[in-house]
Structures are given as structure tokens and as C-alpha cells.
Amino acid sequence: MLPSSTxxxxxxxxxxxxxxxxxxxxxxxxxxxxxxxxxxPGTATxxxxxxxxxxxxxxxxxxxxxxxxxxxxxxxxxxxxxxxIEAFLVQVMGLRxxxxxxxxxxxxxxVSDRLxxxxxxxxGHPTVDPHGDPIPDAEGVLHAPxxxxxxxxxxxxxxxxxxxxxxDGGFLRFLExxxxxxxxxxxxxxxxxxxxxxxxxxxxxxxxxxxARAASKLLVRxxxx
Amino acid sequence: MLPSSTxxxxxxxxxxxxxxxxxxxxxxxxxxxxxxxxxxPGTATxxxxxxxxxxxxxxxxxxxxxxxxxxxxxxxxxxxxxxxIEAFLVQVMGLRxxxxxxxxxxxxxxVSDRLxxxxxxxxGHPTVDPHGDPIPDAEGVLHAPxxxxxxxxxxxxxxxxxxxxxxDGGFLRFLExxxxxxxxxxxxxxxxxxxxxxxxxxxxxxxxxxxARAASKLLVRxxxx
DNA sequence: GTCAAACTTTTGACTCACCGAAACATCCGC
DNA sequence: GCGGATGTTTCGGTGAGTCAAAAGTTTGAC
Lengths: 225, 225
What we know:
Two copies of one chain form a homodimer.
Chain A: H1 5-20, H2 30-37, H3 41-53, E1 57-60, E2 64-67, H4 69-91, H5 101-107, H6 113-122, E3 158-164, H7 169-177, E4 185-192, E5 197-201, E6 207-211, H8 212-215, E7 218-222
Antiparallel strand pairs in A: 1-2, 3-4, 3-7, 4-5, 5-6
Helix pairs in contact in A: 1-2, 1-4, 2-3, 4-5, 4-6
The structure holds a DNA duplex.
């Protein structure tokens, strides 16, 4: 099976879906896969069975699906293309970080190896895209540091915003406006479980409070000495 | 009908096919269209009838097909994307002019208007691509100067190579090696109809002879003063 | 004028990716 | 350990794009 766009999208969804469920070898339920791809459940079942025939996934009826080694590599290379394209669109072409996701989603299925390699060179072999998402290497291996989000990180110490787990344009623009883009320095001042929110102080010494939901989408790295 | 890749390719083939047959309103025979798209003749008939239903082409059974005004505009915009992409890949990304055609062929169906516009800006609103092919403007209008080829141009005067009517990598590499790329200056020294060839002198004062077939693919502009 | 060659259209069938609805599993509450 | 609620699979059907081969049309040679 030569991997069509559709196949690539299924693999990518399983790849990132499994990343969401903590243990990396857990099975992804079909319902979640179908929802991620916005297709009917039956469609996902049919496709997954075909992927299983091709040896790209392991599939257990009524249990779920997981990538095989071959599928994992393919998915990682799709993700590599996606993230290199996002970095390219932002850093070389000067587009905004909140408007490149959809373009990358289409281009990732179409760019040749030559183009990917050239973008990688022009960008100086980056390890993360503009959202801080790690870029798998050319062999399809992902080097992803385990980072705490704003609900788990230490309080009262300076942190560097490192990764954003949401591609929604509105959310990204909000972050930019509030100086919460990757690279910015912030401090968690207080966490209020009952009120379901987190109080922050940003670079310009400005203070703001965000909900737990949003806080969980911001990953940070405690700063060195 | 939202124009799929397939539709865009049919329109483009009719657009450039009609350009090949001199009078711009002549009908393109189905056989030629099918051949250009490497598709069975019956497939082309079916598709052309659908395009006719959508008002993108005029179709006369057993005679051929021609673009409607709407189809012409759509086709021109596809060609605009294609040629801007080729220019971008060469001038911004540093790829060779003989290896960008296939990438552009895929990307042209996928790049957003935003990307096209950005490429156009970055390139300074170019009017031709790296092969000298004219780029339709954003309204889908093509400004194409009528240029003579090496079989029709004046002999013994300096000429600027302006356009190459062939995307074959081997041919393009040959031109580059022989200093026959667009922009180079050459002179036609002699034309030999019987021997079916043309003798040239290139910039470095080197001499070479090429066949009439190849000569007809090089368009030139006589130099001023 | 006829007829065969060359071209075009029609027909029937196939693949891919998808949907909706009916049938089927699983698992949890009690 | 029964009965749903929930999730999953199966089944029949659709539209796009394609092919191969049969049927039809044009055209030019003679």
C-alpha cells in the first residue's frame, strides 16, 4: 500500500492519539480515532483493518489500535514534514505562528524528500517547531523531553514557556498577546484548585489568571541557576 | 463543483493544449487531452462531459473541447500557482531549475491563496518563471509576448534566450551546460533546412549545432540597439 | 460513393474513501 | 448474573475517478 494522504492522516492521528494516552503502548479506541479524523466510526474500522493488512498497525477488535514499528516510523515522518513546514512558513516565509497549521496539514502530504531536506537545511536542523512541538529526526525517531504543564510545575520559580499543546488560532493569538509564547519567561504565583485556575506573572511584570484547562496546554521548563 | 486536483489538471491541460494549437479558440481533440493526462480516452470523455455540466468548458462531441471564460480563469490561476512555485523553489529555496517541475505539479493543487501571495511578494511580483514561461496575474490574465523560436528568428544578430518550451530535466541540463539558459545571449549563425539543424554561437564565443526539434523549443528576443 | 482506418463515445466494472443504520460486544450497576 | 448504556462492527449504498472493450462516428483513399 502506497501511503495516500488518508493513510498518512490515520497514522498521524494514531501516533499523536497514543501520545495523549500516557503509556505509549496502550490501544487507542476506535471512537477516539474516528472523532479525531471526523469520520463515521464504521469508516475508521474499515480503514484500520486495511492498515492492519498492510502491517502498519496492530488491531484488536473491540479493543483498539496501535502502530506497528513500520507505522510508527511512517507517522513520525509525516509529523516531521508537518512541523518542518510550520517552522519554514514562520521563519522563512514570515507567516504568523497562529495561521500555519492548516497549510502545513495539506502540504505535509505532498512535499518531496528533497524539499523536506532543503527546508531542514535552511532552518539549521531545528528540533522544535514554532509551537515548541519536537520534530522527529530523519529516521523517524522523536526526542521529546518530558515537560511539566502549568498545573504540575514548581510554583514561585522562573519558568520558560516551551511548548503549546493546542493549534487553535484564537488560543495562540491570546498567548502571543499575553506574552506567553514559547521562549517567554513566566512564574506561577498561585494555583487555586477550587477556583480551577492558575495565577501567573509574565515578563513585563504583568499579572494574569488563566483557567486550568488552558494551563494544562502550556508546558514549561524550570530555568537554570 | 469545488475544483479537485483532477479537475485542475484537466483545465490546465486544455489551457496549455489550446495554447499549442495556434488559434486560441480551436477545439482540442479528446485524444490529445487523454494523452496529455495519460488517461484512457473514455475517461477524458466522461470527465469533459462533467466539466461541461459545471460550465467550465465547451464541448462538442466528436469535435473536441475548449475552455469557457470561467474555466480559462481557473486554469490560468492554476498555472499562476505552478509558475510562482517553480520560481520560489529556484530563487528562494535554491533548487535547480531542472528539478522543480514535479514538485510544483503537486504543490500547485494545495497551496493556499495566502501562500501564493506571500511567494509573489517575496519574489517581487515576477512576470516569468525560471523557464521563461509567463506567470498569469492574480486575476487570471496571461500577458504573453509573441516570441520567435530559433527556426524563425533573424540570423546573424544577437538574441536573448527568453523561454524554454520543455520541462524535461535532461534537456534543461543540456541547455544549462551549453549556456543556453534564459538570459543568455546567442546568435544564430546558420540554418540548414535539409540537414534539419541550426548552428549557434553562444556567449563564451563557443559554437554548437542543435536539431530543429530542439531549436523550436527555444524562444528568443532580438536585442535592442 | 464506398469502405476501412482512426478516432470518439458508451457500457459495465472496479477501487477508494466515505456515510447511515442495523446488528453486535463489552462492561458496569445493581 | 441481568439489562442497559456505550462503544464497535457489519452491511448496503454513494460519488469520484479510473479502465477495457464494444459500439458508434468521421474522414480520406480510392
